[in-house]
Amino acid sequence: MSDTNSDKAATAPLLSRALLGASGVGLLLGFFLPWVKLGTMVALSGLNLATTSGQAIENMSGPAGFIVFVVPLAGIALLLAAVRGYRRIEWLGLVSGCLIFGVGVFTLVRVFLDTTGAGMWLVAGSSMAAIMIGTLTQRR
């Protein structure tokens, strides 16, 4: 009888397993769907970003595109953990999601910094100054 209880305690709840398994499948499928569209003629998937070279591609995916492979690896890990029913599956989901989100934010900031000029920075800084001055004068 205690073996049955220990088996139940060793697996994650079915809802968590199903949702994180679906997230893993989404990561795997999304890796092969378009990530970047340039007009109507060019669309690049995660796989294209990871395997294609060039300065523009490296700006989006990092050197050699190895960072992009975090997505399918996390998808596989989530899917396997969901199938196996590991008890700490929630931590794997949290770590995978944060890692992928962090890579995405890093990529967006990197592309923004590489593609903006002095005029954009002057406009952004001036607008932030206007917001701060307007906020401070409203408080008085």
Write a concise keyword list for the protein shown above.
about 140 residues, mainly alpha, two-stranded antiparallel ribbon, about 75% helix, flat, disordered N terminus
Summarize this entry quickly.
With 140 residues, the protein is mostly helical. The protein is built from seven helices and two strands. The radius of gyration is 22 Å and the shape is flat.
Explain the layout of strands and helices:
Layout: H1 2-9, H2 14-32, E1 34-38, E2 42-45, H3 46-51, H4 55-61, H5 70-84, H6 89-115, H7 118-139
Antiparallel strand pairs: 1-2
Helix pairs in contact: 2-5, 5-6
Taken in chain order, the helices and strands follow as HHEEHHHHH
The counted number of beta strands is: 2
Characterize the main sheet. Answer: 2 strands, antiparallel
What structural class should be given to the helix and strand makeup?
Answer: mainly alpha
Biggest sheet strand order reads 1-2
Commentary on this structure:
With 140 residues, this protein is mainly alpha-helical. Strand 1 and strand 2 form a beta hairpin. It contains 7 helices and 2 strands. The radius of gyration is 22 Å and the shape is flat. Helix 2 runs antiparallel to helix 5 and helix 5 runs antiparallel to helix 6. A two-stranded antiparallel ribbon has the order 1-2. It has one domain.
